[in-house]
Amino acid sequence: MRKLINSTYITLDGVIDNPMWTSPYFDEEAMSLAAEQTEAADAMLMGRATYDGMSVAWPRMDESDPNTGAAYFNNVKKYVASTTLTDPTWNNTEVLQGDLVEAVTKLKAQEGRDIIQYGFGSVTAELIRAGLVDEVRFWIHPVLEGGSSLTAPLNDFKASFDLVDTRVHKSGVIIASYRPETAA
């Protein structure tokens, strides 16, 4: 059975929307892990909001540059969970019909490699409740973006941080210690 892997970029204050804040952190190490994920996956699953953002961005990127990942994203088989999208324009995209849990159960039962899912919202929550998500990978970025419940008292406060220490406990708790970024 295929595995469904969710990979989500997130800030320290829990923001996952419009992850433009990831750019300064997408170094060789991050590119390597991203490439491992895509090489292991021959299909991608997303909700409508993720589809709307990715289907605009990826087709504009240069597929001949292997560092962009555009060739993968533009050509991999894509599945969108949506009740309103009827005619997807992004290459090789199929809208899942009917019950989401049934549709994803069928996808996972097919022969193939992993199914990668980006973004974290109602689709992911429903699939986790149904026991269909095999792994969640949070890419925690050392920034406060504002707009989440954690930073609501700070309104539109934004900041970047330097990593000081990381401790991974056997229980799965990760303690990441950061200091406010020093001016260069």
UniProtKB/TrEMBL annotation:
Bacterial bifunctional deaminase-reductase C-terminal domain: residues covered = 3-173
- What Gene Ontology terms describe what this protein does at the molecular function level? 5-amino-6-(5-phosphoribosylamino)uracil reductase activity
Instruction: Offer one example of a GO biological process linked to this entry.
Output: riboflavin biosynthetic process
| A Pfam family of this chain | RibD_C
UniProt xrefs under PANTHER family: 2,5-DIAMINO-6-RIBOSYLAMINO-4(3H)-PYRIMIDINONE 5'-PHOSPHATE REDUCTASE, DIHYDROFOLATE REDUCTASE FAMILY PROTEIN (AFU_ORTHOLOGUE AFUA_8G06820)
Protein name, per record: Dihydrofolate reductase
